[in-house]
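Researcher: I'm preparing a figure for a lab meeting and need a structural model of a single chain. I don't have an experimental structure, so a prediction will have to do for now. The sequence is pasted below. Please return the structure as tokens so I can convert it later.
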Amino acid sequence: MAAVEEWTAQDVADWINHIGLPAHSLSFLDNAVTGLDLLEISDSILEWLGVRDIADRLHILERLQDVLERQETQDFPPLRHELLSVIRETSEYTETVEDEQQESVSEDLEVQQEREVEVCGRL
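Model: Understood. Here is the structure written out token by token.
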């Protein structure tokens, strides 16, 4: 396969299919995303391209980093900063969800305890 910086929009779309995200390949093709564009891709650009799922964005960035490492492309900065950004966002999201779930469980317990008190009060 040619070096990433030589990929056409069709090559990029084919690669998106190859890494298991065929639902996104048409968006890359419609927006004429080439290999040179991939070298400057960011999490926000992926989201703009319609890759809404953070796991899919992370998957694209990780697979691109793998390709670049295999090609030993030294002319372009690694995408580690983008990967770290997505990982950090995922971690913050996970913490928020866990906090909300904990609050929900606590509220459910409070409601249950109030009902038990009401029932005991009637007896």
